[in-house]
Write a structure and sequence with these properties.
It contains eleven helices and nine strands. The structure holds S-adenosylmethionine (SAM).
Length: 256
């Protein structure tokens, strides 16, 4: 065996060692259910409808297993996600709300971006049904005294009618089956005072249901609805800017 081959062998075995270490750590910190879930996500890649039945029967369970440091690193590694989040934060700041609720706030990426633009005085509340996502949000936003994080479900919001100037969902309704998606929209509309804002892609995958959120509002006689695709330039850092823009939907409903 040449020195070069030996070097390659060492690399292969250290790569394997590294994978084994990752598996051991994942087992130790997240348990067997997490490992099973992760391996099934890969194994069922080519069978989206089976994948939906096996892995997405209970969205809350899915997001509890999906959330965590690995998911955060994966998302933060995608520059187009950050660009979209910044773009959305500016659209929200343009409304000049004094209180904001984000339904499905995840690990707090969108809240942190909104905060950077709107300043400290705006009160921001986040709610999410995944404790793994929410605990990362708590860490991510711990220095922010004007952020309130709540564990709960978007289809039963624990707030009085018209509690927030602006209510936002970003990549949340699309992850819920039709009956729940409908309840979330009704709840958003109930607790919002001035604006409902949605960034909800319209494509269908194993964990996305593909909705036209703007049409839902229009069908209810709300006609001050601004709906557009997110500009293609926002996705410049993505592998597929045109596709990302095409399947996006930004929807702003003015209730005033
Ligand atoms: C793709 S992440 C988006 C997170 C965040 N909105 C953002 O844009 O960065 C979807 C989040 O919505 C949450 N979620 C989905 N359906 C929900 C529901 N019915 N009630 C509460 N949270 C929900 C998930 O737990 C997950 O954290």
């Amino acid at each position: 065996m040449s020195h070069q081959d030996k070097g390659l062998n060492l690399e292969v075995s250290s790569g394997r060692q590294c994978r084994i270490q990752k598996v051991v750590l994942a087992y130790k910190y997240r348990g067997a259910g997490y490992l099973w879930h992760k391996s099934m996500r890969r194994a069922l890649e080519r069978w989206p409808s089976l994948k939906r039945r096996v892995l997405y029967a209970d969205p809350r369970h899915y997001w509890t297993l999906r959330g965590g440091p690995e998911y955060l690193a994966e998302q933060e590694g995608q520059k187009a996600r950050t660009a979209r989040s910044n773009w959305l934060a500016h659209r929200i700041a343009d409304c000049k709300p004094m209180s904001i609720l984000e339904v499905g706030c995840g690990y707090g990426k969108q809240i942190a971006n909104i905060r950077r633009i709107v300043g400290d005085v705006v009160q921001i509340t986040g709610i999410d049904f995944s404790l793994s996502q929410l605990s990362l949000a708590q860490a991510h936003l711990r220095s922010d005294d004007n952020v309130f994080l709540i564990h709960g479900s978007g289809d039963r919001l624990p707030f009085a009618d018209h509690s927030f100037d602006l209510v936002l969902t970003s990549a949340v309704i699309l992850h819920n089956p039709p009956e729940i998606a409908d309840k979330i929209r009704q709840e958003v509309l109930r607790v919002a005072r001035c604006w409902c804002v949605h960034n909800e892609d319209t494509d269908t995958t194993y964990n996305r249901f593909g909705y036209d959120t703007a049409a839902w509002y229009q069908a209810r006689g709300l006609n001050r609805v601004d709906s557009s695709k997110i500009p293609v330039e926002v996705f410049a850092e993505s592998d597929d800017p045109a596709g990302e823009s095409e399947r996006s939907q930004f929807c702003l409903v003015d209730l005033r």
